[in-house]
What we know:
The chain is an alpha/beta fold. It contains twelve helices and six strands.
Amino acid sequence: MANMKPSVVLVYILTIFFNTGNATRSRSFSKFPAILVFGDSTVDSGNNNEIDTLFKANFRPYGRLYPGHTPTGRFSDGRLITDFLASILKIKNAVPPFLKPDLSDHEIATGVSFASSGSGYDNATNDVFQVISFPKQIDMFRDYTARLRRVVGEQKAKKIIGAALVVISTGTNDISTLRMDRNDTGYQDFLLNKVQFFTKQLYDLGCRSMIVAGLPPIGCLPIQMTTKQQPPSRRRCLHNQNLYSVSYNQKLASMLPLVQAKLSGSKIAYADIYEPLMDMIHHPQKYGFEETNKGCCGTGFVEMGPLCNPTTPTCRHPSRYLFWDAVHPGQSTYQYLTKYVEKKVLPKFL
């Protein structure tokens, strides 16, 4: 070392520094052995394929950008935010649905999604759309736990569930109705009570690390603007509906620390989806978007699910559209949201 030139020594030191930093980051982001997902179409990777409902996306053009250009049941042109999260956390590249017919033992050990497109916290929502309710998703989690014990044994199963990252993303289907126009804040409190109840259930079943997503700017969803019969040339986000989302999110963000305090050893973090989406809408050029008030599929005003099908034309460049269909963000949007969660939410667990 004494005969080494100063420049060589500097390179040597920097190499050690960056390698050490990368190793630390890798260990930190490998903290979670599995990812467990509950919610609606924002995180359903294909469970609705296996039930009798119109809320399906297992046909083209869905999955246009997914590996192999395969429609999987994800309401997206590609991967979902939970898929990207699983990749960042070095768990796996995609989160399979629990109802996948050929679900492998390895997939069980590293986590699955129990989410169902069209579902919500409110059982009335699930009854209308004939999808998998949140209580049923928790029942599925109990079935998952039983299989996990058979795969890895009782003690390891307990460790996996206790160390897994739980993601909960739902609520939009519950309130994307006239409730917002009536400023029905009492319904917000009803939903928040459901959040407390379900997080407590998951805690009692062994879960300790949970991310609970807030509401998006519902008034900016293309389908919501269409319902107000806005002319294509003057489509604008619905201010009152966005205010409702903001009000709910503020209550949720304030409530979760109180829930965490009651559940010893838990970490329950709020994930703000509203602000990053609004930044994309107000500053699309920062993200490479050219269209933010309609989807890529069809006219972009009403098409989703069965209306977005193999006969429906799509835009040439989905990555330039914030929305894939009239309700759901595209893969590019989910990538940006994931980066936001990685920066703002994941450090709370590390």
